[in-house]
Design brief:
Elements (H helix, E strand, L loop, with lengths): L1 H9 L7 H8 L3 H13 L3 E5 L3 E6 L6 H5 L11 E4 L5 H10 L7 E4 L20 E8 L9 H16 L6 E4 L3 E4 L2 E12 L4 E11 L14 H5 L5 H22 L1 H11 L6 E5 L5 E9 L5 E4 L5 E4 L3 E4 L2
Length: about 325
């Protein structure tokens, strides 16, 4: 009922009669008033004028599931959303839900995280009401060896979602970062449950710095607020990203690996550049980035002409 009242208010720019709205919804005036009070308690600014009715003045900066669902153009992503003010990590919750059989596209989002994490055990700072911190359950029908493609298609979705409204120089840094002016804007973490030849589910966790100030993020990072010098509507950006992640995921299913590869080339920060890679065993490899392969691995031509296939590691661009 809360969502229905909000939708009526959103779709009428002027005042709307409370009596008329209550009748349409089959509510008593008292029940309707209680819902209005509940909405105000959630942060909605609603004006009430005698003989005119009610008008929605301001929507709170909150990632409420009904705000995300309003006019969200997806087929399965975020059709089931769990929302939290503060959690240890959205990844942990999404993992437990996936184990219980929650459907593909289930979204877990939070206004802050106490123990947000990135790759290799790194910390992802998640200040309250400042960024987007969320995890999506996916159940791709691909080999576990191709799991790197899911991170790349998610990266493409994030970039395209942001670019819908903002003309920013964004790029993808293999394997899981979104950069703006060579500073980290967003990161992706993947955790999967798989057997030898099939994936049961993968959790895609994403952190995006939206209205984060300089003092709230590491010196090598940035935010949309810092890039654009204005506060950003988090819900709008979030919905754009969710729609674009679904679009890239479905396009990958229809067109295959070449869809990911061609888009990665177009958006890549590393493509054609000289890089240094610190491998998981701490060995350092240098060379020029040729491409990614059909599994999403980085192809590096070393100085002696040998092409090395990099599955994971920390990459630093040299030239």
């Amino acid at each position: 009922m809360r969502e229905e009242i909000l939708n009526f208010l959103k779709e009428n720019s002027g005042y709307i009669s409370g009596e008329e709205l209550a009748q349409k919804l089959g509510l008593s005036r008292q029940a309707f008033w209680k819902h209005i009070q509940d909405l105000r308690g959630l942060g909605y600014e609603i004006s009430a004028v005698p003989h005119l009715g009610y008008r929605l003045i301001k929507i709170p900066d909150r990632l409420y599931p009904w705000e995300l669902a309003y006019r969200l153009n997806t087929k399965f992503v975020a059709k089931k959303t769990l929302y939290y003010k503060n959690v240890a990590s959205t990844m942990d919750i999404a993992w437990e839900l996936a184990k219980k059989g929650f459907p593909e596209g289930t979204l877990v989002c939070a206004e802050s995280q106490r123990r947000g994490r990135g790759r290799l055990g790194r910390v992802w700072l998640s200040p309250y009401l400042k960024g987007l911190y969320f995890s999506i359950i996916l159940r791709p029908k691909i080999s576990p060896f191709k799991i790197g493609l899911i991170s790349l298609l998610s990266s493409i979705g994030i970039v395209e979602g942001i670019k819908r409204d903002f003309d920013l120089p964004l790029s993808i840094k293999w394997p899981n970062d979104i950069l703006a002016k060579e500073r980290k804007l967003a990161g992706i973490l993947m955790e999967l449950d798989a057997e030898q030849d099939r994936i049961n589910f993968v959790i895609v966790g994403i952190g995006l710095n939206v209205n984060t100030s300089k003092k709230e993020i590491p010196p090598e990072a940035t935010s949309l607020y810092l890039l654009l010098n204005k506060r950003i509507d988090r819900v709008k950006v979030f919905k754009n990203i969710l729609e674009e992640i679904e679009r890239t995921y479905l396009s990958f299913q229809e067109e295959g690996e070449n869809f990911i590869i061609s888009n990665w080339r177009r958006l890549s920060y590393l493509y054609g550049g000289r890089v240094k890679v610190i491998l998981p065993n701490r060995e350092i490899v240098e060379g020029r980035v040729l491409d990614i392969d059909q599994d999403g691995a980085l192809l590096l031509r070393k100085d002696e002409g040998i092409v090395e296939r990099i599955l994971s590691g920390d990459v630093e661009k040299i030239v």
